[in-house]
Design goal:
Strand content: 25-35%
Helix content: 10-25%
Structural class: alpha+beta
Number of helices: 9
Largest sheet: 7 strands, parallel
Radius of gyration: 24 Å
Distance between the termini: 56 Å
Shape: globular
Amino acid sequence: MNISRTEYPNPQAQRENWINLNGQWDFGFKKIQTGFKFSSDASLALKLFKEANYTDKINVPFCIESVLSGIGNTDFVNLVWYRKKVKIDKTDKRIFLCIGAADYLTTVLVNGQVAGRHKGGYTSFRFEITDLVKKGENEIFILCEDSVRNPLVCRGKQSEKKKSHGCDYTRTTGIWQTVYLEFTPKSYIKNFRLYPDIDGCSLTVEADFEGISDFSAEAFYEGRKVGSLKENNRKGNSFFKLDLNEKHLWEAGKGRLYDLTLKFGEDEVKSYFGLRSVRLDGMKFLINEKSVFQRLVLDQGFYKDGIYTAPDEEAMIKDIELSMSLGFNGARLHQKVFEPRFLYHCDRLGYIVWGEYPCWGLDYSSPKSIPAFLSEWEQAVERDFNHPSIVGWCPFNETWNYHGRSQYDPLLETVFDFTKSVDRTRPCIDTSGNFHVKTDIYDVHDYSYDPVFFKKNYDRLITENYLYEHVLNDNPGRQKYGGQPVFISEYGGIKWESDESIKSWGYGVDVKTPEEFCERYCKLTEAIIGNKKIFGFCYTQLYDIEQEQNGLLTYEREKKFSDGVYEKIRNCNMALAEIEK
């Protein structure tokens, strides 16, 4: 079997010495009929390592539910286990087993010994296995436990019912991003943060080191060295200022990335950065001190054959390029933590995105949700901090009451405060749509069908400083507009069936012709672009996903309309916004 997804998974921290473990693994799985509970320790993994059968072969990194996995089982699955024998030449290097993402509770054994456990379905993790491997053949065993019905598990858009329905889709169980080995010297760079300064034309590097050694950094632009530094005998946590002799700003549509090489003793890491700033100024969203209207589209990161996992790198690039070809300058990466390789292409192409978390499934009414959510969210923010394309954070989306119980407001306030403490360089929306508790930006989800009604409501923001929002009207006292910058972060969702063989779902079901679709799209969008107190929109959505058929493209990313319709949509999206004037 050919190995899928052969590219290095994280271009922001790339080492030359690594081994891709994607491809065929021995595989087994099990559905627990009733009373499934997550294991409290590694005993279940140790037991399965000795006793489990391997009934299938699976193509990693694709989940069991996907066609590309070679299995395609879309029923509920609670336990999946993997086995692979790997030849390793034992050296004086440190050896790490790295997993891009696996849903949900993962236990890793190497040669029958516990390497580590990780909780969370969306973030990257690694375990040092130096002392567990031997020269020659080694056996790696991975157990993933999952449940989309546990109230303290974030499932995102994975269906909690057996079949997909509404805006919930096929589940993802187990490994869904690249598995690989990475080798470092004894002294190495554990982690680093990058802080660009457009005024000072410099980059501050905050690095965490293991061991003591000399540190150096070099920056390049289009192959030219534009800055360097060297410090002797560094250890622990350190800050370094790297002055740049050329200024090239990262902007929407123009990535202009600098290459960066970091060295700590014998450890060398290849990275990159974008020179840009973001901040709010009154009602405006500034990028490099310039008001930039955010022309975004909802992208949920689903693929027909790979579910959560893109079949190849070209598919990720295609989604960004298709969006930009329609006049969008970015996306809300919705209800999913996208893989670093996708974010790299956003960085490279100058594509604005919001870092979000797949919060659906969490019990928002329970205080227990705070520690359950924070650990996973922290990992996401820390992993993706250095991406210039990410202009803001949004940990929650539409925190509707849980089984009739009201939202626990301290959850949103705590997560907001935590996010701001971890990253003071970006704005944060506490929850997209509702219910707002403490937020830098007041965003609204509005799927009104009538453009006249839609425009009239938001014109009141200009004339009366009154923000219409159906959640405010339907849930008096739950949230209050406090004069923050305004973002229409979901609207439209106009249904247009592309697959009549399934029962479709969407908003705005009364549109009958492509011309009607285009007219509604443009009038709704023009109402937002023409409002001088709104800094951006996000249209729902870029492509259809299974039964939700309100995309501008089909699930296969094919056209649904004529070139003329798409040209009108593009021109509408790219019109100069009032807030940019």
